[in-house]
Design goal:
Layout: E1 2-4, E2 7-9, H1 11-19, E3 24-29, H2 34-44, E4 49-55, H3 64-67, H4 84-90, E5 93-96, H5 103-110, E6 116-119, H6 129-136, H7 143-148, E7 150-151, H8 154-162, E8 166-168, H9 172-186, E9 196-201, H10 216-219, E10 223-225, H11 234-245, E11 252-258, E12 264-271, H12 278-289, E13 295-297, E14 315-322, E15 327-334, H13 338-352
Protein backbone atom coordinates (compact mmCIF):
# COMPACT_ATOMS: atom_id res chain seq x y z
CA UNK A 1 0.00 0.00 0.00
CA UNK A 2 1.05 3.59 -0.57
CA UNK A 3 -0.06 6.83 1.09
CA UNK A 4 -0.52 9.91 -1.05
CA UNK A 5 -2.00 13.28 -0.07
CA UNK A 6 -3.29 11.75 3.17
CA UNK A 7 -5.13 8.83 1.55
CA UNK A 8 -4.18 5.20 1.16
CA UNK A 9 -3.64 4.07 -2.39
CA UNK A 10 -2.75 0.55 -3.52
CA UNK A 11 0.37 -0.17 -5.51
CA UNK A 12 -1.95 -1.60 -8.14
CA UNK A 13 -3.61 1.78 -8.62
CA UNK A 14 -0.21 3.47 -8.91
CA UNK A 15 0.77 0.89 -11.52
CA UNK A 16 -2.41 1.59 -13.49
CA UNK A 17 -1.63 5.31 -13.44
CA UNK A 18 1.83 4.62 -14.82
CA UNK A 19 0.37 2.39 -17.52
CA UNK A 20 -1.94 5.25 -18.53
CA UNK A 21 1.13 7.36 -19.13
CA UNK A 22 1.42 9.33 -15.91
CA UNK A 23 5.02 10.10 -15.08
CA UNK A 24 6.55 10.05 -11.60
CA UNK A 25 6.58 13.61 -10.33
CA UNK A 26 9.96 14.23 -8.72
CA UNK A 27 11.50 17.05 -6.72
CA UNK A 28 15.17 17.59 -5.90
CA UNK A 29 15.83 19.26 -2.57
CA UNK A 30 19.32 20.73 -2.64
CA UNK A 31 19.42 20.86 -6.43
CA UNK A 32 22.53 22.99 -6.86
CA UNK A 33 25.17 20.76 -5.28
CA UNK A 34 27.08 18.22 -7.34
CA UNK A 35 24.73 15.32 -6.61
CA UNK A 36 21.72 17.58 -7.16
CA UNK A 37 22.74 18.73 -10.62
CA UNK A 38 23.78 15.17 -11.50
CA UNK A 39 20.27 14.04 -10.57
CA UNK A 40 18.86 16.74 -12.84
CA UNK A 41 21.13 15.70 -15.72
CA UNK A 42 20.03 12.07 -15.47
CA UNK A 43 16.36 12.72 -14.74
CA UNK A 44 16.00 14.98 -17.79
CA UNK A 45 16.64 11.91 -19.92
CA UNK A 46 14.37 9.59 -17.91
CA UNK A 47 11.20 8.81 -19.89
CA UNK A 48 9.16 7.94 -16.81
CA UNK A 49 9.90 11.07 -14.79
CA UNK A 50 8.74 14.68 -14.68
CA UNK A 51 10.85 17.09 -12.63
CA UNK A 52 8.32 19.30 -10.88
CA UNK A 53 10.34 21.23 -8.27
CA UNK A 54 13.90 22.19 -7.39
CA UNK A 55 14.99 23.79 -4.15
CA UNK A 56 18.14 25.74 -3.32
CA UNK A 57 18.90 28.07 -0.45
CA UNK A 58 21.69 29.79 -2.41
CA UNK A 59 19.91 30.36 -5.73
CA UNK A 60 16.30 31.16 -4.82
CA UNK A 61 14.27 32.58 -7.74
CA UNK A 62 16.96 31.80 -10.30
CA UNK A 63 16.13 29.51 -13.25
CA UNK A 64 18.17 26.32 -13.07
CA UNK A 65 19.50 27.01 -16.57
CA UNK A 66 21.14 30.19 -15.26
CA UNK A 67 22.73 28.37 -12.32
CA UNK A 68 23.90 25.52 -14.57
CA UNK A 69 24.12 26.51 -18.24
CA UNK A 70 24.66 22.81 -19.00
CA UNK A 71 20.88 22.25 -18.62
CA UNK A 72 19.79 25.54 -20.22
CA UNK A 73 16.95 24.93 -22.65
CA UNK A 74 16.40 21.41 -21.30
CA UNK A 75 14.62 22.25 -18.06
CA UNK A 76 12.67 25.43 -17.40
CA UNK A 77 12.25 25.42 -13.61
CA UNK A 78 13.13 28.14 -11.11
CA UNK A 79 14.84 27.25 -7.84
CA UNK A 80 12.75 27.91 -4.76
CA UNK A 81 13.11 27.77 -0.99
CA UNK A 82 12.20 24.49 0.64
CA UNK A 83 8.53 24.41 1.66
CA UNK A 84 7.37 20.88 2.59
CA UNK A 85 3.60 21.30 1.96
CA UNK A 86 4.22 22.98 -1.40
CA UNK A 87 6.73 20.33 -2.47
CA UNK A 88 4.29 17.60 -1.42
CA UNK A 89 1.58 19.07 -3.64
CA UNK A 90 3.62 18.63 -6.81
CA UNK A 91 5.84 15.59 -6.17
CA UNK A 92 5.36 11.87 -5.59
CA UNK A 93 9.04 11.31 -4.82
CA UNK A 94 11.57 13.69 -3.28
CA UNK A 95 15.32 13.29 -3.63
CA UNK A 96 17.30 14.82 -0.78
CA UNK A 97 20.66 16.02 -2.12
CA UNK A 98 21.53 17.77 1.14
CA UNK A 99 24.53 17.76 3.47
CA UNK A 100 24.87 15.18 6.22
CA UNK A 101 23.07 16.19 9.45
CA UNK A 102 20.61 18.33 7.45
CA UNK A 103 18.66 15.77 5.46
CA UNK A 104 17.19 13.90 8.44
CA UNK A 105 15.11 16.87 9.62
CA UNK A 106 13.80 17.43 6.07
CA UNK A 107 12.81 13.77 5.72
CA UNK A 108 10.88 14.00 8.99
CA UNK A 109 8.80 16.80 7.48
CA UNK A 110 8.13 15.06 4.16
CA UNK A 111 7.32 11.47 5.11
CA UNK A 112 4.11 12.29 7.06
CA UNK A 113 2.84 13.99 3.91
CA UNK A 114 2.70 10.60 2.20
CA UNK A 115 5.70 11.03 -0.07
CA UNK A 116 8.51 8.62 -0.90
CA UNK A 117 11.96 9.95 -0.04
CA UNK A 118 15.39 8.98 -1.35
CA UNK A 119 18.19 10.47 0.74
CA UNK A 120 21.66 10.86 -0.77
CA UNK A 121 23.27 11.96 2.50
CA UNK A 122 24.53 9.66 5.26
CA UNK A 123 21.65 10.46 7.60
CA UNK A 124 19.74 7.19 7.17
CA UNK A 125 22.50 4.77 6.18
CA UNK A 126 23.49 3.68 9.69
CA UNK A 127 20.96 1.63 11.62
CA UNK A 128 22.30 2.37 15.10
CA UNK A 129 21.78 5.96 16.34
CA UNK A 130 24.75 5.56 18.71
CA UNK A 131 27.01 4.73 15.77
CA UNK A 132 25.63 7.75 13.89
CA UNK A 133 26.37 10.00 16.88
CA UNK A 134 29.88 8.61 17.23
CA UNK A 135 30.86 9.22 13.60
CA UNK A 136 28.84 12.36 12.78
CA UNK A 137 28.99 14.13 16.13
CA UNK A 138 25.26 14.86 16.58
CA UNK A 139 22.18 13.05 17.85
CA UNK A 140 19.88 11.69 15.18
CA UNK A 141 16.51 13.48 15.18
CA UNK A 142 14.57 10.43 13.92
CA UNK A 143 16.15 7.24 15.32
CA UNK A 144 13.05 5.16 14.55
CA UNK A 145 13.42 5.95 10.86
CA UNK A 146 16.92 4.45 10.91
CA UNK A 147 15.31 1.04 11.38
CA UNK A 148 12.81 1.66 8.58
CA UNK A 149 15.14 3.10 5.96
CA UNK A 150 16.27 0.65 3.28
CA UNK A 151 19.92 0.73 2.34
CA UNK A 152 19.74 1.70 -1.32
CA UNK A 153 22.09 -0.82 -2.89
CA UNK A 154 19.75 -2.52 -5.40
CA UNK A 155 22.12 -5.43 -6.04
CA UNK A 156 21.57 -6.50 -2.41
CA UNK A 157 18.29 -4.93 -1.23
CA UNK A 158 16.12 -4.94 -4.34
CA UNK A 159 13.17 -6.71 -2.68
CA UNK A 160 13.19 -4.34 0.30
CA UNK A 161 13.44 -1.29 -1.94
CA UNK A 162 10.36 -2.36 -3.87
CA UNK A 163 8.27 -1.81 -0.72
CA UNK A 164 10.18 1.16 0.76
CA UNK A 165 9.02 4.70 1.36
CA UNK A 166 12.49 5.82 2.56
CA UNK A 167 15.73 4.78 0.87
CA UNK A 168 19.24 5.69 1.99
CA UNK A 169 21.64 5.83 -0.95
CA UNK A 170 25.00 4.26 -0.02
CA UNK A 171 28.14 6.32 0.08
CA UNK A 172 30.44 6.24 -2.94
CA UNK A 173 33.29 4.41 -1.23
CA UNK A 174 30.98 1.78 0.35
CA UNK A 175 29.30 1.16 -3.01
CA UNK A 176 32.62 0.23 -4.58
CA UNK A 177 33.84 -1.71 -1.54
CA UNK A 178 30.66 -3.69 -0.93
CA UNK A 179 30.09 -4.67 -4.56
CA UNK A 180 33.72 -5.73 -4.70
CA UNK A 181 33.42 -7.86 -1.56
CA UNK A 182 29.93 -9.36 -1.87
CA UNK A 183 30.74 -12.56 -3.79
CA UNK A 184 33.76 -13.32 -1.61
CA UNK A 185 31.86 -12.83 1.65
CA UNK A 186 28.71 -14.64 0.51
CA UNK A 187 30.70 -17.69 -0.64
CA UNK A 188 32.94 -17.60 2.45
CA UNK A 189 36.16 -17.82 0.47
CA UNK A 190 38.05 -15.10 2.38
CA UNK A 191 38.92 -14.38 5.96
CA UNK A 192 36.67 -11.35 6.59
CA UNK A 193 38.98 -10.11 9.34
CA UNK A 194 41.76 -9.64 6.79
CA UNK A 195 40.01 -7.09 4.54
CA UNK A 196 41.99 -3.99 3.60
CA UNK A 197 40.42 -1.33 1.36
CA UNK A 198 42.47 1.41 -0.30
CA UNK A 199 40.36 3.75 -2.40
CA UNK A 200 40.98 6.87 -4.46
CA UNK A 201 38.38 9.54 -5.20
CA UNK A 202 38.14 12.55 -7.45
CA UNK A 203 37.57 15.94 -5.84
CA UNK A 204 33.81 16.06 -6.58
CA UNK A 205 33.35 13.51 -3.82
CA UNK A 206 33.93 16.30 -1.30
CA UNK A 207 30.96 18.31 -2.57
CA UNK A 208 30.66 21.78 -4.08
CA UNK A 209 31.39 23.85 -0.99
CA UNK A 210 34.84 25.43 -1.45
CA UNK A 211 37.54 24.20 0.91
CA UNK A 212 41.26 24.94 0.93
CA UNK A 213 42.47 21.37 0.11
CA UNK A 214 40.25 21.42 -3.00
CA UNK A 215 41.62 24.66 -4.47
CA UNK A 216 43.26 24.06 -7.84
CA UNK A 217 46.74 25.06 -6.67
CA UNK A 218 46.47 22.69 -3.68
CA UNK A 219 44.96 19.75 -5.58
CA UNK A 220 46.53 19.78 -9.04
CA UNK A 221 49.48 17.42 -9.31
CA UNK A 222 48.89 16.12 -5.79
CA UNK A 223 47.81 12.76 -4.39
CA UNK A 224 47.23 12.22 -0.69
CA UNK A 225 45.63 10.03 1.93
CA UNK A 226 43.09 11.71 4.20
CA UNK A 227 40.93 10.84 7.22
CA UNK A 228 43.22 7.87 7.81
CA UNK A 229 41.61 5.35 10.20
CA UNK A 230 38.74 7.80 10.74
CA UNK A 231 36.67 8.14 7.53
CA UNK A 232 32.90 8.24 8.08
CA UNK A 233 32.24 5.60 5.43
CA UNK A 234 34.04 2.99 7.56
CA UNK A 235 31.05 2.12 9.80
CA UNK A 236 28.82 1.91 6.74
CA UNK A 237 31.05 -0.74 5.16
CA UNK A 238 31.35 -2.60 8.46
CA UNK A 239 27.60 -2.48 9.09
CA UNK A 240 26.78 -4.17 5.80
CA UNK A 241 29.56 -6.74 6.06
CA UNK A 242 28.37 -7.56 9.60
CA UNK A 243 24.83 -8.12 8.32
CA UNK A 244 26.10 -10.50 5.64
CA UNK A 245 28.34 -12.37 8.07
CA UNK A 246 26.00 -12.47 11.05
CA UNK A 247 28.76 -11.17 13.31
CA UNK A 248 30.80 -8.03 13.82
CA UNK A 249 33.13 -7.14 10.97
CA UNK A 250 36.03 -4.69 11.08
CA UNK A 251 37.97 -3.43 8.06
CA UNK A 252 40.98 -1.25 7.41
CA UNK A 253 39.86 1.53 5.07
CA UNK A 254 42.12 4.28 3.76
CA UNK A 255 40.73 6.92 1.36
CA UNK A 256 42.88 9.01 -0.97
CA UNK A 257 42.24 12.21 -2.91
CA UNK A 258 43.42 12.37 -6.51
CA UNK A 259 43.88 15.29 -8.86
CA UNK A 260 40.75 14.40 -10.85
CA UNK A 261 37.13 15.53 -10.92
CA UNK A 262 35.24 12.22 -10.99
CA UNK A 263 35.76 8.59 -10.24
CA UNK A 264 36.57 6.08 -7.53
CA UNK A 265 39.10 3.31 -7.85
CA UNK A 266 39.10 0.87 -4.92
CA UNK A 267 41.71 -1.83 -4.39
CA UNK A 268 40.54 -4.46 -1.92
CA UNK A 269 42.78 -7.20 -0.55
CA UNK A 270 41.82 -10.17 1.62
CA UNK A 271 43.33 -13.51 2.61
CA UNK A 272 41.80 -16.55 0.93
CA UNK A 273 40.61 -19.36 3.22
CA UNK A 274 41.92 -21.91 0.73
CA UNK A 275 44.01 -21.53 -2.39
CA UNK A 276 41.93 -20.38 -5.39
CA UNK A 277 42.76 -19.69 -9.01
CA UNK A 278 41.68 -16.39 -10.53
CA UNK A 279 39.24 -18.15 -12.86
CA UNK A 280 37.52 -19.82 -9.91
CA UNK A 281 36.96 -16.46 -8.26
CA UNK A 282 35.82 -14.83 -11.50
CA UNK A 283 33.24 -17.60 -11.83
CA UNK A 284 31.86 -16.61 -8.41
CA UNK A 285 31.60 -12.99 -9.51
CA UNK A 286 29.97 -13.85 -12.83
CA UNK A 287 27.44 -16.02 -11.02
CA UNK A 288 26.69 -13.32 -8.41
CA UNK A 289 26.28 -10.52 -10.96
CA UNK A 290 24.98 -12.44 -13.99
CA UNK A 291 21.64 -10.63 -13.92
CA UNK A 292 22.85 -7.27 -12.59
CA UNK A 293 22.64 -4.70 -15.40
CA UNK A 294 25.23 -2.32 -13.99
CA UNK A 295 27.97 -4.61 -12.68
CA UNK A 296 30.55 -5.66 -15.26
CA UNK A 297 33.02 -8.39 -14.34
CA UNK A 298 36.14 -8.12 -16.48
CA UNK A 299 38.01 -11.08 -17.91
CA UNK A 300 41.21 -12.36 -16.35
CA UNK A 301 44.10 -9.95 -16.80
CA UNK A 302 41.88 -6.88 -17.26
CA UNK A 303 41.40 -4.28 -14.53
CA UNK A 304 38.98 -1.36 -14.22
CA UNK A 305 39.82 2.25 -14.94
CA UNK A 306 37.78 5.28 -13.91
CA UNK A 307 37.78 6.55 -17.51
CA UNK A 308 35.82 3.45 -18.51
CA UNK A 309 32.88 4.22 -16.18
CA UNK A 310 32.89 8.05 -16.25
CA UNK A 311 29.38 9.51 -16.44
CA UNK A 312 27.74 6.08 -16.22
CA UNK A 313 26.02 3.90 -13.63
CA UNK A 314 28.40 1.00 -14.25
CA UNK A 315 30.56 -0.70 -11.66
CA UNK A 316 33.55 -2.50 -13.21
CA UNK A 317 35.34 -5.25 -11.28
CA UNK A 318 38.64 -7.02 -11.98
CA UNK A 319 40.46 -9.70 -9.98
CA UNK A 320 43.90 -11.11 -9.34
CA UNK A 321 45.30 -13.69 -6.92
CA UNK A 322 48.71 -13.43 -5.29
CA UNK A 323 49.46 -17.14 -4.85
CA UNK A 324 52.62 -16.33 -2.91
CA UNK A 325 50.68 -14.61 -0.10
CA UNK A 326 47.36 -16.39 -0.77
CA UNK A 327 45.61 -13.07 -1.01
CA UNK A 328 42.88 -11.99 -3.39
CA UNK A 329 43.09 -8.52 -4.98
CA UNK A 330 39.84 -6.97 -6.19
CA UNK A 331 39.88 -3.72 -8.16
CA UNK A 332 36.62 -1.76 -8.54
CA UNK A 333 35.85 1.42 -10.52
CA UNK A 334 32.73 3.57 -10.36
CA UNK A 335 31.78 7.17 -11.08
CA UNK A 336 31.33 8.63 -7.60
CA UNK A 337 28.55 10.98 -8.75
CA UNK A 338 26.58 8.34 -10.68
CA UNK A 339 26.76 4.78 -9.31
CA UNK A 340 28.23 6.33 -6.16
CA UNK A 341 25.33 8.77 -5.70
CA UNK A 342 22.75 10.13 -8.15
CA UNK A 343 22.63 7.25 -10.62
CA UNK A 344 22.21 4.77 -7.79
CA UNK A 345 19.43 6.96 -6.39
CA UNK A 346 17.60 6.76 -9.72
CA UNK A 347 18.20 3.01 -9.90
CA UNK A 348 16.59 2.75 -6.45
CA UNK A 349 13.69 4.95 -7.60
CA UNK A 350 13.07 2.66 -10.56
CA UNK A 351 12.83 -0.30 -8.20
CA UNK A 352 10.57 1.55 -5.76
CA UNK A 353 8.12 2.48 -8.54
CA UNK A 354 8.18 -0.82 -10.40
CA UNK A 355 10.02 0.48 -13.46
CA UNK A 356 12.68 -1.32 -15.44
CA UNK A 357 15.77 -0.79 -13.32
CA UNK A 358 17.82 0.42 -16.27
CA UNK A 359 15.40 3.18 -17.28
CA UNK A 360 17.17 6.51 -17.67
CA UNK A 361 20.57 4.99 -16.90
CA UNK A 362 21.54 3.21 -20.10
CA UNK A 363 23.86 5.82 -21.59
CA UNK A 364 27.39 4.45 -22.08
CA UNK A 365 30.33 6.00 -20.25
CA UNK A 366 32.04 9.11 -21.58
CA UNK A 367 35.41 8.53 -23.22
CA UNK A 368 37.97 9.95 -23.23
Amino acid sequence: MAIRDGTIESEGVMKQQRERGRKIRTAVVGATGYTGVELIRLLIGHPGVEITALTSESYVDLPIGEVFPSVSGLLEITCEKFDPPEIAKVADLIFLALPHKTAMAVAVELLPLGKKVIDLSADFRLRDPDVYRRWYGVDHVAPKLLREAVYGLPEVYRRQLAAARLAAVPGCYPTAALLGLLPLVKREVIDPDSVVIDAISGASGAGRKPELPLHFSELEGNFKAYNVASHRHTPEIEQELSRWLGREALVTFTPHLASAVRGILATITATLVTSKAVEELLALYRDQYEHEPFVRVLREGRFPETKHVCGSNFCDIGLAVDQRTRRCIVVVAIDNLVKGASGQAIQAMNVMFGLDEKTGLQAPPLFP
